[in-house]
Design goal:
2 copies of one chain form a homodimer.
Chain A: E1 11-12, E2 14-15, E3 18-19, E4 25-26, E5 36-44, E6 51-63, E7 73-86, E8 89-94, E9 98-101, E10 107-111, E11 117-124, H1 135-141, H2 145-151
């Protein structure tokens, strides 16, 4: 369970992509959706803020769930490199690049085979739950060869 | 003037602490408050998000305004090192450290004399204006030798 508030201390030190007083969490409940080698930390969550700032990290070859939702994602790559699918575009991503995921846009992140991929993600505190593609929707993705190549790395 | 929305493109590339399609802005209006060698970029601002993510950067020896406000700051150091005053505490800060500035807490950031200091700052879109200390408030700070030493670097 996440703590209801994160960030009470003035300063939380960074060391090797962990932060003081900040729990290393499972990305999602195991078996709830497809994902691989990914963790989650909540860096800032406070009743005084309309958004949360989370840090997600994939080990080499790891990936997040292919999903979409009404709420928007504002992402800054903090560590390493990889690629992402956003809508029908596959893009290479490097440290400090910014990724904007508009409402209801399909998206998935994937670490390179030889690099971690860590990113900050800002989201509204009040947000809807993600949905995953149906079989038909997944087939439609695969009509695009670049997207098909991205997806088949699972 | 800031653009009303930031982050329309899926991917905005990073290069030398600038981002595609992201304007380099003055920290504040010149002469409106004390500050030195500091710039501002709005990384994410969108009607769908309750918060903005900004990037502030100080050249070596630069500093932000000593101020406070009702709204909270959630800060991640993205570049270099320096120190900050938060309330009556002076703390050294390094890349990727997290700093939490609670409502109505006096704060100021300062780059080291030999390093840039760049940080991400998440704030609510709807927020109040900062206030600066009165002469009496500034004198009260100076009763603490560590705080006095921090402030006199201006």
């Amino acid at each position: 369970m996440d703590k209801p508030k994160q960030g009470g201390s003035i300063l939380r030190r960074f060391r090797d992509y962990r932060w003081d007083e900040t729990e290393l969490l499972a990305y999602k409940e195991e078996g709830s959706a497809p994902f691989k080698a990914i963790t989650r930390q909540t860096l800032f969550r406070d009743p005084a803020l309309g958004c949360e700032l989370r840090y997600f990290e994939m080990a080499p070859g790891g990936y997040s769930t292919l999903e979409r939702h009404e709420h928007m994602h504002a992402v800054l790559i903090l560590r390493g490199r990889g690629e992402c699918l956003v809508g029908d575009e596959v893009r290479k991503i490097e440290t400090n690049d910014l990724v904007t995921i508009a409402p209801w846009t399909w998206h998935q992140f994937r670490a390179a085979s030889d690099s971690h991929l860590g990113f900050l993600c800002m989201v509204n505190v009040e947000r809807d739950k993600p949905v995953q593609p149906t079989e038909d929707e997944r087939k439609a993705f695969e009509a695009n060869p670049l997207v098909a190549a991205f997806l088949k790395k699972d």
